[in-house]
Amino acid sequence: MSECWYMPEEVADRRDENRLSPNVPGSYEVLGESGVFYRHFDPKEVSDDMEGFIQPLLQKLHYKSYDVVNLSPDNLGEEKFEALAEQHFREHIHEDDEVRLILEGQGYFDVRDPDDKWIRLLSKPGDCIVVPAGMYHRFTTEHSKYIKTLRIFKEAPRWIALNRGPEAEETSARKEYLSRLRAPAETAVGTANNRTIYFLRYPLQLDASLTTITKRLLEQHSEQPFALMIFLTGSTDPTTGVSWCPDCVPAKPQVAERFTELQRKCGEAHAIFLQLPVERASYLGNPAFPYRKHQTLQLGSVPTLLVLTPAKNAENKSDSQWYDLLEVKVRSCDPGKRDLLNFEWH
């Protein structure tokens, strides 16, 4: 994604950038919180071998079909193009995810954040955008009036829009989307409570969030150290309640057992749990996935379980990041191992 920003509720020309004054940038984290997925591919990689590129992507995303559309007055005629442009810019939802990979040209996806504010996403060749089913959004080309996109579908190609209103609000897609947006996070050891059980959804937000949490824990546990268990696991499909990662399913109760052991080892109040969900589409086949490159997490596969304790003199390192404040005691891809927590506890 080249850039995203908040925009006014009303605009004079939809094809202008339409930024607030002063400009208010959007963020990957807010988009992720809203359910939007983004990834950039090399446009040349796509165009050189379309079929070779798309088939593995369909398998990874569990989609079945695709087509390519060319939206421009030259291709459709001015009247038909403008009619479609008006239709696409009406705020609407779909009952399926909208998956678009930009091949040529540029356009703007406008999506609603969790507070129902508009965020505008500038989309260029190579940008892949997934707008979840039930999320209000709209689309427009910029002033060139030209965009060529690859559309990906779960079944046969189709585009059915439900404009914002009572009918759209009553659809199962909208209700499920809102329930996911508002639901408290569930982990392998219980509901996140931001005291002893944490759930951090967004990789790019990890270091800032976990540093804040770690410093707070160091203050709260100044008399007796704590132990932090981190569980990296394939994210859960909200429609089935099951992880996309087959090995993560049996790992879930095993992790719960290991956490109970950790509570017995260091005291229930001093055992802290953090679950980090790993999204299939952004993880599989992506060597640049943030958790893979992270100096402490070093994610090689899911599931992965880590246990960390405060580093020596951590309480005196006020300007440090969490990975400097904690040291890894356990790292394992097999949460079922019975002697996993066989480390010295002070």
Question: If you had to describe this structure to a student in words, what would you say it looks like?
Answer:
By secondary structure, the protein is α+β, with helices and mostly antiparallel strands. It is built from twelve helices and 20 strands. It has two domains: 4-177, Sandwich (Jelly Rolls), CATH 2.60.120; 186-332, 3-Layer(aba) Sandwich (Glutaredoxin). It is elongated. The model has no long low-confidence stretch (mean pLDDT 91).
In short:
The protein has 346 residues and is of the alpha+beta class. It has helices at residues 28-33, 43-48, 50-61, 73-76, 78-89, 166-169, 172-182, 206-220, 248-266, 280-283, 290-293, 322-325, and strands at residues 3-6, 37-40, 65-71, 92-93, 98-105, 107-112, 118-123, 127-131, 137-141, 147-153, 162-163, 186-187, 190-191, 197-199, 227-234, 236-237, 242-243, 271-278, 304-310, 326-332. It catalyses: 1,2-dihydroxy-5-(methylsulfanyl)pent-1-en-3-one + O2 = 4-methylsulfanyl-2-oxobutanoate + formate + 2 H(+); 1,2-dihydroxy-5-(methylsulfanyl)pent-1-en-3-one + O2 = 3-(methylsulfanyl)propanoate + CO + formate + 2 H(+).
